[in-house]
Write a structure and sequence with these properties.
CATH architecture: 3-Layer(aba) Sandwich
Largest sheet: 2 strands, parallel
Structural class: mainly alpha
Number of helices: 9
Number of domains: 1
Order of helices and strands: HEHHEHEHHHEHH
Helix content: 40-55%
CATH class: Alpha Beta
Distance between the termini: 39 Å
Strand order of the largest sheet: 1-2
CATH topology: Rossmann fold
Amino acid sequence: MLAAARQAVLVATVPLPYQPLRQALDERTNVEARMCFYLSGLFTAAEEIQHHLDAGVPVVVESYFARCLTTHRALGARLGITLPSWLPTPATYHLVCDDDERQRRLAGRNKPVSRWDSLIETATDRVTDAYASFPMHRVDTTGRSPDEVLRVIMKTETQGAHPHADPKPVGAHPHVLPAVPRHAAGTCRP
């Protein structure tokens, strides 16, 4: 819906060629291997994203580096990651809702629950805490329809960039990509 409203292209951050391996990897238990796989997909997607942005085409993604890093760290990954400066870093929207509504939504999904989905449910507080290190617009979706959430996001975007987000990409393009700090807490630096 956001891509259509922004007249943007929706880019998958787990590219299509990665999907069969994703299913196989999700059956494994090595969190660092899983994190590296998702990082590889994100770097591949970031090249496609940058290509679109260079052509003046707005981009929307569902997930980006902040989600990958926070969820895998919450699951126990200890890899130090320094993100390159060339990554596109405009506005991020962190959609949240109260826990009762979240549980209802999860129960209503028509999606098999993986081992990793179950594990992340035991670490939601650690994920929430880790997200705090990333600049993003927090949007409470409790009791709101998808159309209402879209209106909140569109209104937020017109109010200007998040004070910690990179204002040049946000101001130059009406695209939406999660922001990534150059050196998130706990990452290695060169």
